[in-house]
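Q&A log
Question type: sequence-to-structure
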Amino acid sequence: MSLTDITNKILSDANKKAENIIGDGQKELDKILAEKNQQIVNAIQIIKDRSKERALKIQEQTEFKERMLKKNILLTVKQELIDQVFETAKEKLLKLNDEEFINLMVKMLQSTDMVEDAEIITSSSKKDLIKKAIQKAGLSYKISDKNLPKGEDGFILSSKIVEVNNTIENYINTSKKEFSVEIAKRLFE
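Response status: OK
Response body:
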């Protein structure tokens, strides 16, 4: 064997080893790339799943907020209707004819506990009607020189110890607390 043959043989063996190493390296590289690609695919799927979950939560929250907004609007409208009912009642009470007004005041006087040494404060335009209501109720209250503020009707029973507000405004406000639920049932059932 000549030196050339030995050199060629060494080169041939080295080339085969290099090809084997390159082949093995390529296989290892392909395996690593396949694993990394699978990891990327898995990560993308996880991100997609989380995004879907987040989107569903956002959608549910949005739908919940929308339902609550609709309920709030509905409640506001219902409350406005109830307020209109009481406002209409107040207007009707303020427009009672003299006889109806006297009868209402008699009922209010009779439902009020007796107060010693009390006087009745009323509007200047209704003093005569209140006097008639006091007589009709069989009571002996004195009419005060003081007047209710302009636009208010009814009376305030006033003594040194207590003051009972029986104005139409107060009567309506008290009735609101007492009858709002019943009115709502009648309006909305």
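Response note: Residues 1-95 form one domain.
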